[in-house]
Automatic annotation (TrEMBL):
It comes from Jannaschia ovalis. Gene3D superfamilies: Sulfate adenylyltransferase. InterPro entries: ASCH_domain (IPR007374), DUF984 (IPR009326), PUA-like_sf (IPR015947). Residues 18-135 form the ASCH domain. This is ASCH domain-containing protein.
Amino acid sequence: MSRSLQEIIDANPEAETFRFGDSKALSDEILGLVRSGVKTATCEAARHYGENGDAWPEVGRRDVALEWDGRPAVMIETVEVSTRRWSEMDEDFVAAQGEFRDLAHWRDAYRAYFERTGGWSEDMKIMCERFRVVEDYAEKQP
């Protein structure tokens, strides 16, 4: 029996909810990588956090990634959080994100993403998070 999002949040009141990506297709692709264990890190423009945005990730906090339609997908636990500038991204962190061939591929994809979601600049601050999957809420097929 699957649990509702409300039941999950009631049991984890500190949890934030979020979606990976900015489209259903991207969200589905990223959730597949998270579920397979290939993706263990993510990043976002720091401007999306703070007083009028999302809560900054904290080590040890568990959050719920949603399917594009709002159903709970997976619970993740933050294991590391750092901030860096666009120009400071490195191959190691890019590899942990799981969806990029190399740093150049990451730069192309994330520049386009940041431009779609509020703007890009060479000196922009980026929140970098490493995580582990705690629970997968996918319906188990018999």
